[in-house]
Amino acid sequence: MLRNAFDKLTIEAKFQKLSPGGAVSYVEVPNMQNNIDAILALIGHIYENNIYAELNTKSDYCQKCGFDGEMQIVNNDGKLVWECPQCGNRDQDKMNVARRTCGYIGTQFWNQGRTQEIKDRVLHL
To answer: Is the pTM of this model over 0.70?
Structure first.
């Protein structure tokens, strides 16, 4: 079971050795500029273990209150919805959310299955 970004990268490093150049590891890092110690530890881990890896940071933005951070996925009567942790905005027309899906960064809002997968990811350091 993956508990954190370091576990994820360690497991993926085994596959990279079987497919050099064909396997990319990535880690999504929230609040990157306030997480410098974790970033440095992560880069050291990547340097020692992985052939190729990327760090993605969140670029979410709430147009209602100006929050610039990570939008949360919350359960709303059995449906997963995106919510601004600062003002509670759930209007997708008034927020920008970007996440990696299927190897690409996507900015549209996703169906419930993909949203659940995004919610369940090991994201935080």
So the answer is: no
